[in-house]
Amino acid sequence: MAHSRHIEAPRAPTLLPVAVFIALGALLPLLLSSGFHVRLAMLIWIYAILCMGFNLLYGFTGQISLGLPAFYAIGAYGFGMLQTMLGFPPLLAFAGTLAIVALLSLLIGLPLLRLRTHYLAMATLAFMLIQNGVANRWIGFTGGQSGIAVPPLEWAGETLGRTEIYYVVLVMASLTLLLHDFLIRSHIGRAMQAIRDDETAAQALGIRVTRYKLRILVVSGVLAGVAGVCFGITSLRVDPSLSEFHVLVSVLTIVVMGGLGTRFGPIVGSVIVVLLPQFLTSFGAFETVIYGVFILVFLLFMPHGLSGLFERRRWSLRRRSSPQADAQAREMRRSAE
Amino acid sequence: MLMTLSYLLLAGLTNGSVYGLIALSLSVIYSASRVINFAQGEFVMLGAMSAVLFLVTLALPWPVALVAVIVVSVVVALGLDHGIYRPLVRRKAEPLTIMIGTLAGAIVIYGSAFLIWGPEPRFVPPVLSLAPIRLGFLISNAQQLSLIVLFFGFLALTWFILYRTRFGLSVRATGVDPKVALLMGIRSERIVQFTFIYSAAMSGIAGMMIGPLLGAHVSMGILITVKGFMAAILGGLGSPFAAAAGGLAIGMLEALMAGYGTSLYAEPAIFVLILMVLIVRPYGLLGDYEAERR
Amino acid sequence: MPKMKRSAAGLAAILAMTAGVAAAEPLDLVVCAVDDRSGSAADTGIESLNALHMVLDPVNAAGGINGQDIRIVEYDSKTDPQLAANFGTRCAEDDNALLIIGGSPSAVANSLVTVANQNKIPLWILAAASPELTDDAQYQFRFGPKVTQDSIAVADALAAQGIKKVGIINNSVPFGISGAASAIEALEPKGIEITTQQTYDVAATDVSPQIINLMQSEPEVVLVYPYPADGARVIRTIRQMGMTQPVIMPRVGAMKAFRELAADAGNGVMIPSSVDPSREDVEKFFDEYAEKFGELALSPSPAQGHDAGMLLTQVLKDAAVQEKIQAGDLQGARDAIVEATGRLGNFNGLQGQKDVAYNFAAGHHGPPDTGFFVFIEVAGNGKELVGADISKLAK
Amino acid sequence: MTVERNSGPLLRLENVVQKFGGLVAVNNVSFEIRKGEVKGLIGPNGAGKSTTFDLVTGVRPPTSGEIHFNGIRVTRQPAHTRSPMGMARTFQIVRLFRGLSVLENVQMGMHPAFPDGLLPSILRSAERRRQEAESRKRAMKLLDFVGLADRAGERIETLTLGQLRLVDIARALASGPDLLMLDEPAAGLNDAETRNLAEMLALLKKRGMSMLLVEHDIDFIMSACDTVVVMDHGTKIADGTPAEVSRNREVIAAYIGRRAADVTV
């Protein structure tokens, strides 16, 4: 069974689109006239950071965490509180915040990752409710429902302007994007997808499944924390609403619309979810229904989201559809479930 | 002392019955379809809001209103099943993706209810009397007590359907293995449709009965469902009875925590407790049944 | 089709069109109303906006101000502080609004305050009660009382009647938790003992565990911080269990949903109110409101909307403000509005006791500290609200 | 992982027992596989061969008894440790990764060779890139070996069952195993596919690959294996060359009798 002809391996995806996204991001403030647009752009990047974490965890590794908004909130609270209460300089507060969210994710993840699908979803949701409940109740520490102020970023004694803050957020988002892309294009991303698709087989190939899940959970927690810090420096406030249901709904909407398990889904989705309410204001009371219908349409008719439309074209063009192959693939899938 | 304890237990039973009802409806759907229905609480909201419509606006007698509430719930449930669940199952979406679909469904239902009823809280006229009833030294009222009756009634009905009818057998078979069920000539879509309808009716009736106590508000759905979720995973999602027991457990815990501990931190404390239970028993307190099948 | 126009404008904005304002043209009289018109605080946002229209629509119908109509741009913040901040920024930077009115829940108001100070745009907060909102305030003013003023009014009344022991019960949503916290803060310095603080879940149908603890702590007066429906549940259970102590229920007690649900159990519940129903002008206004928008309980929100509208017409007519508006100087106009609000803001509105004026002077920026509250009482099985006799507190 | 090569058998099972509650699924089974040997494991339905396979591949630890691989005791080592040791397996129900391309599936077999962990992968990026390139090349070679190089970039959904099994084998081979364990590789294949598979296994054998083959198809196993272990009711009833085993009375009794029953199902 020797095959003499030599066939090239298909080419691996390049970094070019990542560079394009970052370059677009860097040019954006030059194109936008009002500070409001810059603010929206910042929010897009912040949600993109948050959702890239969720994408790695659920889209690529198959482990859901509905508790991500809690880490988002803790990131913002931590960054603010370390500065105001302990007098940390911003960089140290940033590092400290990341350490806190990493440690918390580890503590939560160690026991909870034994849980599967809906149990994991509900348990992590419980974590979000705990965090939110405490943030609302422990008024002396968290400021209760009105939250706490986050000190504005300064450079050489001057408070940073909005455009400068935008670039700080952009740097964070770019680093996140690079990490996200590195992970999914490397052997680590392959292993993550293997765990998502079939844990038993992944284990048989020597992948330490639990350890991988835990790592990605920590990565997603840390990214949520980074997003929280970015939110803190843009809004200069943090309150319990950062870990309420509507944030969770936004995260889920972003990954569904952008495309679960795609390279750029979180960014594309964030663009939609941040801008959509601004357009929907003109629909008045119909807003909520339209929003819900939007999500449904994407779920039903675009299973890989907007980003998937482009990223998956490669697959569909090559796809050879023989009825027999389809039937067998179906059978295989069914027995794998 | 004894009086306090009895009061706490009665309150636990009442609140637990509400959580248990939601958990029961969630679990009936889950056991046939392996999907958590995020829109379940919206049926409670629909029950309460449409009760206002039928009882106040249209001034129908309550038995007619009850039927009308059931009809509304069933129609919306069919929409959920045909519009979201089936298409997603047919394109082989993951259970969690279907869950996200039901969340979108919840947003649509909530948004539509907002269009119809607006944001104001509504007054739901009580079907039964709110006048005090004495049970020994305990005092309650008929509307509250009816929730306990409703809960155990639905528990019994669910048991009867699942274990005493041929149809129930096929429901259980679908839950165990849809492929085998198909071989037995059972169309699992039918079964899942039934569970959606049955759960929706259950929640709708619950909404009509809870409304006079909790008030009706278009955004009440998610508040109610959260405790139901927690009850279901505490008891064990896979079995309706385990989930219902989880509801009672949360109700009792809450009452005891409020009675003897801190009422301010009762909610977060109970969620912490649930997490700890899950760490020891990943499929819930009574979830052996599901754990073994994996 | 104004809807179409607005979405087209939004589209243009998002596509980063430059909106160059010619220097010589006068500014449009744009006012943003960012408030909750859906979600749990929707009633406050809707009622205040209605009242705002009641004041401004006739002004516009009569030719506006110097021939210019006042345009209200409305955004629904949905109890979402982040969304509110986005809309606030949009008002400041895209809509070129002269000022922002709104922000009823504290979290929403808080994020609007940040926006106002970043963008140097005046913000008139309506109902939000969080005390620190107007600490060291520059651009923000508030029409509603702080929750602490609310609590201080209650504490003063209780202290005056020689009450020594108060039990508190609140629901577990932020409103209940922070309301109770501020009450404790106001009561303790007066030497009033808090016998217990009980918290219950809004979704709990039976609150008797909390009521039992409340009963056993033997308070002289009970303070309740609920939402309407659970407030009714609490008061019913309190009376069912044979507690006869007076009950004070800030704000919520006046709401229709509460009074309907509580029915006879609600009789005698006392409410510290910033709106005095015995004032003639108040009664007339609420009759007028009911005619336009349907029956409404005595609620501070329409009064706040009304007062904001009154002050707004005064401020826009002000010479210093008009000068900047005519010159097309947006930032100048905003600063002038801040200044004029402080200067003109000592006026009698529909809130407070008769002849008690707002105090928007520098360093205060809100309702007066005393004389702003009256006590009212639920009567007639929930059908009426009447003036309360607080001496009944000390039985 | 450095493994001290010994001269003993590659795989050794000693008195392995597996109980599920009161049921004894595997009862005191012992056998060996030498280097280069292709061992078949057969038996009627419910004989315990799949359970035995699970014990060897580490899906669960046995109730008692010992398993040694390359002289190392692996009895209670979890499944993920087996591949780095040189044990690779395929699955009866094909368990390829749906989200990955054919090539990437094969690359997964080489996973343990990559740097472990996030930071090492980022820090040792030059080494990782070289490894990645190498792994792609090797995976292509393996795909070429099983005759699927032209499908490398495709989703696995587009392949037939026979092709999927070949990818599974390529993936197992990718780890460079000392022992290849195949779980019913011919199940569900048509005649042509089965012949193709047999040819490939013969080629692997010629290259010196040791294999453990669990199979239902007696003809397939008799032609492919050096030696065969026969199980019935959880017990080993024969162990020898195909010729020896097929003459064994106990085997014939157990097998033929049951096989008739199998057919009627």
Automatic annotation (TrEMBL), chain A:
Keywords from the named record: Cell membrane, Membrane, Transmembrane, Transmembrane helix
Listed under GO cellular component are:
plasma membrane
- Compartments (UniProt record): Cell membrane
Top-level taxon: Bacteria
From the Swiss-Prot or TrEMBL record, give the protein name. Branched-chain amino acid ABC transporter permease
Q: Which species is this UniProt entry from?
A: Paracoccus lichenicola
Which Pfam families does the protein's record reference? BPD_transp_2 (PF02653)
- Any GO molecular function: branched-chain amino acid transmembrane transporter activity
Q: Which PANTHER family match?
A: HIGH-AFFINITY BRANCHED-CHAIN AMINO ACID TRANSPORT PROTEIN BRAE, HIGH-AFFINITY BRANCHED-CHAIN AMINO ACID TRANSPORT SYSTEM PERMEASE
Regions that span the bilayer: 12-32, 38-58, 70-86, 92-113, 165-184, 216-236, 289-310
What's its membrane topology? Multi-pass membrane protein
From TrEMBL, chain B:
Family according to the record: Belongs to the binding-protein-dependent transport system permease family. LivHM subfamily.
Where mainly located?
Answer: membrane
What molecular functions are annotated in GO for this chain? transmembrane transporter activity
For this UniProt record, give its keywords in alphabetical order, as a comma-separated list: Amino-acid transport, Cell membrane, Membrane, Transmembrane, Transmembrane helix, Transport
Pfam families on file: BPD_transp_2
The record's annotation in InterPro entries points to:
ABC_transp_permease, BCAA_transport_permease
Please provide one cellular component term from the Gene Ontology annotations of this protein.
plasma membrane
Question: Which GO biological process entries does UniProt record here?
Answer: amino acid transport
The subcellular location is: Cell membrane
Spell out the protein name for this chain.
Branched-chain amino acid ABC transporter permease
UniProt topology in membrane: Multi-pass membrane protein
Naturally occurring in which organism (per UniProt): Paracoccus lichenicola
Query: PANTHER family from the entry?
Result: ABC TRANSPORTER PERMEASE PROTEIN, BRANCHED-CHAIN AMINO ACID TRANSPORT SYSTEM PERMEASE PROTEIN LIVH
Q: Please give the start and end residues of each transmembrane region.
A: 6-31, 96-117, 137-162, 191-210, 241-262, 268-286
Automatic annotation (TrEMBL), chain C:
The record places domain Leucine-binding protein at: 33-354
One GO biological process this protein is involved in is: amino acid transport
According to the record, the signal peptide region is 1-23
Q: Which keywords does this Swiss-Prot/TrEMBL entry list?
A: Amino-acid transport, Signal, Transport
Q: Tell me the domain of life.
A: Bacteria
Family that this chain belongs to: Belongs to the leucine-binding protein family.
Entry-linked PANTHER family? LEUCINE-SPECIFIC-BINDING PROTEIN, PERIPLASMIC BINDING PROTEIN OF ABC TRANSPORTER FOR NATURAL AMINO ACIDS
Q: What is this protein's name?
A: ABC transporter substrate-binding protein
UniProtKB/TrEMBL annotation, chain D:
Q: Which CDD domains match?
A: ABC_Mj1267_LivG_branched
Gene Ontology MF annotations: ATP binding; ATP hydrolysis activity
Give the UniProt keywords, A-Z.
ATP-binding, Nucleotide-binding, Transport
What Pfam families does the record point to? Answer: ABC_tran, BCA_ABC_TP_C
InterPro entries given for it? AAA+_ATPase, ABC_AA/LPS_Transport, ABC_transporter-like_ATP-bd, BCA_ABC_TP_C, P-loop_NTPase
* A single cellular component GO annotation: plasma membrane
Q: Which residues form the ABC transporter domain?
A: 11-258
Q: Which PANTHER family match?
A: ABC TRANSPORTER ATP-BINDING PROTEIN, CONSERVED COMPONENT OF ABC TRANSPORTER FOR NATURAL AMINO ACIDS-RELATED
Would you tell me the protein name for this molecule?
A: ATP-binding cassette domain-containing protein
